[in-house]
Specification:
- The N terminus is likely disordered.
- The longest helix is centred in the middle third of the chain and has 59 residues.
- This protein has 259 residues and is α+β, with helices and mostly antiparallel strands.
- 36% of the residues lie in helices and 20% in strands.
């Protein structure tokens, strides 16, 4: 059988290349054998142009420089984030430290000495309690004080056969310059007749209405607080939210003026 000499196969090109390697270069159909090392885009375009084919198969083109750039950017982003977090932490720590110093200076210069003087003067029977945006002089009864007497504006004292309620504590909001509605609250077991609610109610201020709360004189403040506690250890029948229905005996006593 006669060999078809017109058939151009790979061996022919290999032999032809070896004989005329200095003058000609032929590219096989698959470029993967040629593009197996680092190559410039210019050279790649030239090789593709010389292939004389409409289609070529490219298995892989690895752009190492771009991969390195992306990796570097990711690393830079990580380092930047860590440094930023560290800087924010240092700034916040410095801010909190300086804020604490300012608070200490403010308390010491503005209210420190005056406040400590009030606390030392009114204790041990009274203390200061911060509650619901208020500063309260607070007297705590342990055990709770049993309210068994009532007074009227006729200078009479009613002595009840049973306890009307038990007084657990008295709150006086000393932020108020004068005693007014909402300055005094009573904590009780049951309802004190002079409070608007059981357990914890606003007290009717009676004769204390518009009385000054003297924060500039701790001794006068203590005297006022003791006067308040003595008053609400009794029921004032002329300013009651309800009248106790308990049997009682009467006797002479101090006078109380309703608000």
């Amino acid at each position: 059988m006669e060999e078809n000499t017109n058939h151009l196969n790979g061996d022919f090109f290999k032999r032809l290349k070896s004989e005329h390697s200095a003058k000609r270069e032929f590219i096989p159909e698959g470029l993967d054998k040629i593009i197996s090392k680092e190559i410039k885009f210019k050279d790649l375009n030239e090789k593709l142009a010389k292939s004389k084919q409409e289609k070529v198969t490219v298995k892989e083109i690895l752009l190492e420089t771009e991969v390195d750039l992306v990796s570097s950017l990711k690393q830079l982003k990580t380092v930047f984030k860590e440094e930023l977090n560290a800087a924010i932490y240092r700034v916040n720590d410095l801010y909190n430290s300086e804020l604490l110093k300012l608070q200490k200076i403010y308390k010491s210069e503005v209210i420190g000495e005056r406040l400590m003087d009030i606390i030392n003067t009114i204790s041990p029977h009274w203390c200061l309690v911060m509650k619901d945006k208020s500063v309260n002089a607070y007297k705590y009864y342990s055990p709770p004080f049993e309210v068994t007497e009532a007074i009227t504006d006729k200078d009479l004292v009613y002595v009840y056969e049973k306890t009307v309620c038990k007084l657990k504590g008295i709150y006086v909001n000393i932020l108020h310059p004068k005693i007014t509605n909402g300055t005094i609250y009573l904590a009780t077991e049951g309802q004190h007749p002079n409070a608007d609610a059981p357990e914890f109610g606003m007290a009717c201020d009676g004769d204390f209405d518009e009385r000054d709360i003297p924060l500039d004189d701790s001794n006068k403040l203590l005297s006022l607080l003791n006067e308040i506690s003595a008053a609400y250890e009794k029921v004032h029948l002329d300013s009651c939210y309800y009248t106790p229905e308990i049997k009682f005996k009467t006797k002479k006593g101090q006078k109380w003026k309703a608000a």
